[in-house]
Amino acid sequence: MANGERAIPFSTREDNREQQFRRVWVEELDEVFADVARYYDRANHVASLGLWNWFRNRFISTIDVQDGQKVLDVCAGTNAIGIALLEKHPDLQVHAIDRSKAMQAVGQESARKLGMHIDSSIGDVHTLPFPDNHFDVVTLQYASRHLRVMDVCREIRRVLKPGGHFYHCDMLRPANRIVAWSYYVYLRFCLNFTALLFSSTASVHSCKEYFINGLRMFYSADELSELLAQVGFEGVSCQTLLGGMIGYHCAVAPLDTE
Ligand SMILES: C[S@@+](CC[C@H](N)C(=O)[O-])C[C@H]1O[C@@H](n2cnc3c(N)ncnc32)[C@H](O)[C@@H]1O
Description:
Largest sheet: 7 strands, mixed
Order of helices and strands: HHHHEHEHEEHEHHHHEE
Radius of gyration: 17 Å
Distance between the termini: 37 Å
Bound molecules: S-adenosylmethionine
CATH class: Alpha Beta
Strand order of the largest sheet: 3-2-1-4-5-7-6
Number of helices: 11
Shape: globular
Structural class: alpha/beta
Strand content: 15-25%
Number of domains: 1
CATH architecture: 3-Layer(aba) Sandwich
CATH superfamily: Vaccinia Virus protein VP39
């Protein structure tokens, strides 16, 4: 699949992803995250065999940010990234955006308990409600499979100051078929197990196959690097873990925005 897919332009692959998943994205995901919000962090600890915080800290360690800078966390969910950044740099101005009121309610409560302030917007990230050249750093973790990635990355490039950095972390499609197959088997087991453990609602059960298929149609680490370059980012770099199952990308908004 990888070689065949590589011949297809990213714009077509994005159309295919949207055609396949639009109904879930538009009609179902909000309900899924409304339920998942109450156990999101605990479920991820279980599914990652206790490595969840380690994965997050590894991502945070790739992020170069200075006190006082403006950071936007796209699809911020329960604010894991904003909180981890503020723990390291209490003077940052962090803004979270997510479509799920429930995920943000949990995230805002977690920040408040720690005495932190994170600005919050509720909305669809395909259109970011911020001016051009506004943020020093933008982060996006574990959400791209639910998005038209090219469109959101263009928006991220627009709101970043010239020379600003975009940091992306996600589960990616492993380029090796055997690694990919093992990954899907494990994910299917985890989705079933955590849905039972946390008494998920029917909306979550009905989306379990979507989570696997979303990954199957997603990008490998190299493809995502190529996509970021195509939308105009410079200096794209990537580190991967576990045979490409997780990727940490960094990309720079061009200084010359002509
Ligand atoms: C798996 S969670 C990731 C949350 C967080 N970034 C993290 O690392 O824990 C995915 C998040 O993406 C959000 N999301 C999905 N599609 C979205 C969209 N089109 N606009 C805004 N948020 C969206 C969901 O509401 C959910 O909170």
